[in-house]
Amino acid sequence: MIHTSGLTKHFVVKKKTVEAVRGIDLHVEAGELVALLGPNGAGKSTTLRMLTTLLPPTSGSARVAGFDVVADQREVRGRIGYIGQGNGAGHSQRGRDELISQGRAYGMSVAAARARAAELIASLDLEGVADRVVSSLSGGQRRRLDIAMGLIHAPALLFLDEPSTGLDPQNRANLQEHIRELRAGHGTTIVLTTHYLDEADQLAERVIVVDHGRVIADATPERLKADHAGDRVTLTFDHEADARRGEARALDIAAGARAERTGARVVIEVPGGAQLTPKLLRSLDEANLDVVGVEVVRPTLDDVFLNLTGRSLREADAATPETATTTPQESAA
Ligand SMILES: Nc1ncnc2c1ncn2[C@@H]1O[C@H](COP(=O)(O)OP(=O)(O)OP(=O)(O)O)[C@@H](O)[C@H]1O
């Protein structure tokens, strides 16, 4: 469904070159639900804009839904839905009318556009609000309307740029449910960008981690965690001296583990830590080391990012200054 080779985008800003995307090779098969995860400025939106024909690549190539994003823009646009970061829907019209106009713009007949709008309004829980003007809708309702706009022509492939940004947790959960349903009910291929770790973890079947314009990891959330981060086992001992001995013993038992001790507490990071813990406790018991508390925490995608880059995704986000960008033509293509 998506095949890119060395996809690259440079921007020149005040004679300086910004290497937003630096040679991405991406392959997404039909029916996949993929998240591009990375901090602000990693190049996620720029990648999406190239894939949706909104920005021409500086070099490299991309085929989307069977067509080249540069040579066959119209064919690509007709087969995809794109929901950008801003609101696609206008504000003074009723939601339903927006949807019908959008369908007409894709060449649908009035009757077909009307029928499809009604179907999307029902499936995205917009029945109570579709006949209100868009400006009166809540953030979550507007975001769902945006999604309906992107789906009006029943595309086989849907791109969502930061779909949850700005939504409260409940609306975010609702939206994620709708995205799952789209995938399950229609087999739509979905590519979304996010910097929410939990969203990538819970929603996507495949997470492509992007940093500084490059793909640095690509696998299921479980695989990424298993390969790039360990479980964190925290052992609390009665005394600091026991903790010191316990730390050494734990490192003997747990191959590839990293340990850090603070007072009577030892934190061990090790792949498969949950499975290893009973053996660890038995061994500590045999050595007469009293463990008074145990906690096992599974890794998060942030641990993965930290291990891959040395930075936490949260810190990386916080440290990236907002950069003013010139927005390219951004219609729901
Ligand atoms: N139109 C543009 N002109 C100049 N620089 C740009 C433009 N668009 C993006 N950039 C720069 O390219 C880099 C990648 O930006 P991009 O928006 O793709 O990142 P992102 O991963 O989507 O981040 P965010 O989560 O903040 O949307 C950033 O340094 C950004 O400032």
TrEMBL record:
Keywords: Antibiotic resistance, ATP-binding, Nucleotide-binding, Transport. SMART domains: AAA. One of its GO terms (molecular function) is ATP binding. It is found in: Cell membrane. One of its GO terms (cellular component) is plasma membrane. InterPro entries: AAA+_ATPase, ABC_transporter-like_ATP-bd, ABC_transporter-like_CS, ABC_transporter_ATP-binding, DrrA1/2-like_C, P-loop_NTPase. This is ABC-2 type transport system ATP-binding protein. GO terms for biological process: response to antibiotic. It comes from Actinorugispora endophytica. SUPFAM superfamilies: P-loop containing nucleoside triphosphate hydrolases. Residues 2-237 form the ABC transporter domain.
